[in-house]
Each structure stands twice: as structure tokens, then as C-alpha cells.
Design a protein that fits this description.
By secondary structure, the chain is mostly beta strands. It has no helices and ten strands.
Length: 116
């Protein structure tokens, strides 16, 4: 059973930075597009950053230029560097596959709170 475990969230002031990490069990990351998702309240998970199997990134408009996604398939790890954080970035963050038919059960997520 594939499992994702996200970490690195916390409380940060506006303009601050955090680095989120996603550890995937079972060697699942290799050969698959991976993404970071954001969820606020009871809303659906929304992908804010994705990375192809070859390492090409793409971002939602509101995080472009501030967030950077990377992958390390040898360690089955996906990372999200978050800079210049804003209060509207406050949410729970998750990683998962990008393709709908490849989605795995959601991990516990990691909470990011941006507040002064």
C-alpha cells in the first residue's frame, strides 16, 4: 500500500519561508508526475505545483514565482520550497500523483499557517 507522509509545515510570518517534504513509500515516485495540493476547510484538494517524471515543473498562478517543486526519486521524496508566504497560503498541504487514475489515498498532510 502506497503511503505519503508530508512534513515541514508550521507557523510563519508573512514574507517568510518554509520547506515542505513528502516521503512516499514503495518507490512510487519514479516515472510518475507528482504534485503538491492545498486544501482549506472542506474544499477539494487543489493542485498548486506539479512536476513531471522528467522534472519539468508547473505552478498555479498564485504561487508562481514564490514556490518551487523538486523531486528526488532515489529517495522517493518530493519537496516544495515556499518563499514570500502570504496569509492566503494558510492551508493543509498534501502530495499525491497528478493523473487522476493514479491517485493514491491521501496522507495526513502538513499544516501551514501564515500569520503575524
Amino acid at each position: 500500500q502506497v503511503q505519503f507522509v508530508e512534513s515541514g509545515g508550521g507557523l510563519v510570518e508573512p514574507g517568510g519561508s518554509l520547506t515542505l517534504s513528502c516521503a512516499a513509500s514503495g518507490g512510487i515516485t519514479g516515472g510518475h508526475a507528482m504534485g503538491w495540493y492545498r486544501r482549506t476547510g472542506r474544499e477539494e484538494h487543489f493542485m498548486i505545483a506539479g512536476i513531471t517524471s522528467s522534472g519539468s515543473p508547473n505552478y498555479a498562478d498564485d504561487v508562481t514565482g514564490r514556490f518551487t517543486i523538486s523531486r528526488d526519486d532515489a529517495r522517493n521524496r518530493i519537496t516544495l520550497q515556499m518563499n514570500n508566504l502570504k496569509p492566503q497560503d494558510t492551508a493543509d498541504y498534501y502530495c499525491n500523483m497528478v493523473m487522476p487514475w493514479e491517485k493514491k489515498p491521501w496522507g495526513p498532510g502538513t499544516r501551514v499557517t501564515v500569520s503575524s
